[in-house]
Structure to design on (195 residues):
């Protein structure tokens, strides 16, 4: 469930694949439920201006809705290859982050429905929580791999890789990332220095 920014409405997602709006003062439903997901809706969130609502679910999609009419906006956003468990708007409403069963975090432009950059990878299990910092410069993700990761929003992985000459060595990986997470190259095409 999620409150609207003005606190007057609640949105809920359900195992019956619907999204519903509720009057937060009376507890009464507002209008008819939105349908479109195929499978349980796992997360709902209002945009910061209260005009849009995002939902995600077991159908591997993120959907945008008009928060007044519950009409779907555009096509489903299908960037994940597993159930989607978490969705969050950036404070300015220009980014939408989602986390899924494919162990990735995705950034989308909610105005165009297009992905922004490559998937953020590093988690080894499902991502069940995403949240933007109040200034919108960082994104946090939480996973069933028992880690929380912080991502810079303004500098995606490819931008960072473009500035590097090599990947981390295996020793650097063990020291800086974790000895318990299998080594992998973060920047394809860059050399791996010897230990």
């Amino acid at each position: 469930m999620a409150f609207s920014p003005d606190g007057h409405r609640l949105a809920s997602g359900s195992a019956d694949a619907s999204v519903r709006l509720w009057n937060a003062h009376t507890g009464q439903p507002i209008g008819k439920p939105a349908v479109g997901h195929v499978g349980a809706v796992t997360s709902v969130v209002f945009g910061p201006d209260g005009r849009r609502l995002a939902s995600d679910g077991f159908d591997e999609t993120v959907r945008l809705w008009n928060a007044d009419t519950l009409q779907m906006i555009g096509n489903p956003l299908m960037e994940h290859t597993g159930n989607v468990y978490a969705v969050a708007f950036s404070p300015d409403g220009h980014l939408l982050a989602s986390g899924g069963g494919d162990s990735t975090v995705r950034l989308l432009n909610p105005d165009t429905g297009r992905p922004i950059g490559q998937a953020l990878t590093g988690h080894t299990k499902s991502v069940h929580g995403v949240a933007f910092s109040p200034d919108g410069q960082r994104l946090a993700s939480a996973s069933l791999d028992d880690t929380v990761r912080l991502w810079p929003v303004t500098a995606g992985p490819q931008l960072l890789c473009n500035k590097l000459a090599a990947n981390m060595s295996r020793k650097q990986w063990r020291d800086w990332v974790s000895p318990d997470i299998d080594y992998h190259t973060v920047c394809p095409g860059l050399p791996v220095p010897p230990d």
Remarks:
- The chain is about 10% helix and 40% strand.
- The helical segments are 157-163, 170-177.
